[in-house]
Recover the amino acids of this structure.
């Protein structure tokens, strides 16, 4: 999403359409956002669930699926109770107010621009679902299920909702003019930073890095990756909040960046190891998708190609550096792919949004804004989101560790979380 509610409402009269009803509702836009909402939910259930599920060891497959499913339920209800109000109600520069508890103001006739507010609130709910679900990959195979539930809920309210307000709800970063079309800072930087902080606080899995921990089912992972790729069209193109040229361009550049990211990651592996891997291809694809996300409504196809190539190259080397040099067990590479990718894309939006780059030009910067000045705003947005997320995540993890304990015992980890946390097996062959 690129604009806070009040800006969308102000601009809605400018949207060309012949489908306005007497009450101001645009049927075409509403139908598209309903579709986009379903696509984004599909990214978590089953897309991310299968993607992550295939990457863990067989003894933890069910735990990952259960975590993604449970996070979806918890985030949905918290968004209903207070999250939506904190993100999008009138408040201050830091956080929204509490006058829309239980979405009391979201009536059948309430509108955001030319779409029902119920549709807008549900669309935003799917973003609030997938962001804490992404963090699961940072502490996979070692966190207690109860602690995961508490952490995800508190993190949604303490981190995600305020930063959403900063960027999309009329907060201080929105006032500065930050370009974040669909969640470079709001989703990917916050999830990536939270994941790496969790990985550091909890420590590595037993046996890391000396014991091999390969994915147990790459077929499942590739299936999940395909669902993520398709669902991302709702994520990015849906953030136009209209069935218009912005949505069309966002879809096009999303696809281009995903393809470029996948091929670039494959090329890096091919050069280093003599052969490409399926895991590398799908990871590069996700890197391309995450990196283009903040820029998707502002750049053109040429810019998207460059962003995708840089995403594959930078995120590949960030992954190698984090695991091999720093020895940090971010289990499913959330920080180097989403955190680094989201930050990179947010910064590159300032460059490739410019209308003065020939074939690599984007939709143009605001009047009087230069690449340098916009880049400064983007950098502030990335740093502020990362620092705030890191501090609050650390505090939450420490509090939960004292109250409940974050990590399962070594014996439980060895046996696997499927049996020790749920008394079930992912497979019974």
């Amino acid at each position: 999403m690129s604009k806070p509610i009040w800006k969308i409402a102000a601009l809605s009269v400018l949207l060309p359409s012949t489908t306005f009803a007497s009450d101001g509702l645009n049927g075409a836009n509403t139908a598209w956002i309903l579709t986009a909402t379903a696509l984004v939910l599909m990214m978590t259930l089953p897309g991310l669930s299968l993607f992550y599920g295939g990457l863990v060891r067989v003894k933890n497959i069910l735990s990952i699926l259960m975590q993604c499913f449970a996070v979806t339920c918890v985030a949905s209800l918290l968004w209903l109770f207070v999250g939506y109000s904190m993100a999008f109600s009138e408040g201050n520069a830091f956080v929204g107010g509490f006058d829309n508890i239980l979405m009391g103001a979201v009536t059948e006739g309430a509108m955001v621009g030319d779409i029902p507010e119920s549709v807008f609130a549900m669309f935003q709910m799917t973003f609030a679902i997938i962001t804490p679900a992404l963090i699961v990959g940072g502490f996979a195979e070692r966190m207690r299920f109860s602690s995961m539930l508490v952490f995800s809920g508190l993190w949604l309210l303490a981190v995600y909702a305020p930063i959403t307000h900063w960027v999309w709800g009329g907060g201080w970063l929105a006032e500065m003019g930050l370009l974040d079309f669909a969640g470079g800072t709001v989703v990917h930087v916050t999830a990536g930073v939270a994941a790496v902080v969790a990985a550091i606080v909890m420590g590595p899995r037993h046996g890391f890095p000396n014991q091999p921990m390969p994915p147990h089912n790459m077929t499942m992972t590739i299936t999940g990756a395909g669902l993520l790729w398709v669902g991302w069209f709702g994520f990015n193109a849906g953030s136009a909040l209209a069935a218009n040229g912005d949505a069309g361009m966002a879809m096009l550049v999303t696809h281009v960046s995903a393809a470029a990211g996948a091929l670039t990651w494959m090329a890096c592996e091919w050069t280093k190891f003599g052969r490409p891997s399926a895991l590398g291809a799908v990871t590069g694809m996700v890197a391309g998708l995450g990196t283009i996300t903040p820029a998707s409504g502002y750049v053109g196809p040429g810019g998207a190609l460059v962003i995708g190539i840089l995403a594959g190259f930078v995120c590949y080397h960030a992954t190698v550096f984090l695991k091999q040099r720093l020895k940090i067990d971010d289990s499913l590479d959330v920080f180097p792919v989403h955190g680094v990718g989201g930050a990179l894309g947010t910064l590159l939006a300032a460059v490739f949004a410019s209308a003065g780059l020939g074939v690599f030009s984007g939709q143009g910067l605001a009047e009087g804004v230069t690449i340098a000045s916009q880049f400064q705003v983007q950098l502030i947005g990335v740093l502020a989101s990362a620092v705030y997320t890191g501090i609050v995540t650390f505090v939450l993890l420490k509090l939960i560790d004292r109250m409940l304990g974050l990590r399962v015992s070594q014996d439980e980890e060895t046996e696997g979380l499927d049996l020790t946390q749920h008394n079930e097996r992912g497979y019974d062959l």
The chain has one domain: 25-421.
